[in-house]
């Protein structure tokens, strides 16, 4: 600060000296003219005295005014450095250039004050959310040492409110598993804490502070949610199984009772041979249907893990299209895209989707086509199948097991498609086309 003031004073002195130097030539010129004109010595001395006083007074006022302006600006800037944006510099009369500087500094102070208020309000809101959210938040430094926690984290880890240091590795044996996660990843883990255990969704993000990498860990208890989803899944499963089993057992029970009554009459079986054959045939058909139903569930439940390897999407699409040489299928703008996938499973998905699209086109009763195209959006590759068919009447139930709109459909095709795509980290969706008839099936894969 003292050095700055000395620099400012030196500049003020230089400004005064420069102004004085511009006055001296005129002063000496005046004295020379008076001597040349043989003016009285007393008059010359009086002129010298008066001129000197005027020059000294003028330059003293100039020095005071410039020093005052610079001190005002210095005080204002010092206050801004200290975080005080309430001070304002006063605009002086006549100093247009200096006033522009003062206006700029005042505007800067106003802007910084507004930004500080907005930042303070945002920090208060963020602090309130962090303190009341039911998610444990842990901030870790570059050495994976705990530097900040919210109340939910302290409750989960049983950290006393007054305790400043906490050894995560010693108190939480599964911490190393969390610390090894990559930034931006989420994972559902089975974790055990001092007073709580269950399923937790763990999400990790990285940020930098003073140029050093830091970590933010978000831990959310999802046990209740998962149990609720599991209960809903079991209820839906029981409803579907009960419906299918009853559909098979009801006719089997009815027909078997009729056959038993027939045999109880001890009549000649030759007279009822056709009825017996038909009844046994129905029992056999319903038994086979029930067996197929159980095998379908087994197929969904025992989908093998994908054997991923680099595969050309265009090659797989062309192989699928080649299975339907008599159908109108167009392949558009897929490009040279290579995905790390299980080629066999992915081809099974393509066959199912193409088959559904072709059947929809035929059901529409008009000549139509199926178009397959690809598109890259950022780090996501999308493969779309667009048909000119009748569209889908109930989009919400498309991925419900054994739900089908076909008279001879099994209701597991799209379910298997979704399982395969999600096992590869992708997404699949079906939507009706807008304005025209038809459906769009979209598969998204991360690149």
TrEMBL record:
GO molecular function, one term: phosphorelay sensor kinase activity
Transmembrane segments: 12-33, 39-57
Pfam families with a match to the protein in the record: HATPase_c
The enzyme's E.C. designation: 2.7.13.3
SMART domains: HATPase_c (SM00387)
CDD domains: HAMP, HisKA
Location of the Histidine kinase domain: 240-447
Keyword entries, A-Z: Membrane, Phosphoprotein, Transmembrane, Transmembrane helix
Chemical reaction(s) catalysed: ATP + protein L-histidine = ADP + protein N-phospho-L-histidine
Protein name: histidine kinase
Lineage of the organism: Bacteria, Pseudomonadati, Pseudomonadota, Gammaproteobacteria, Alteromonadales
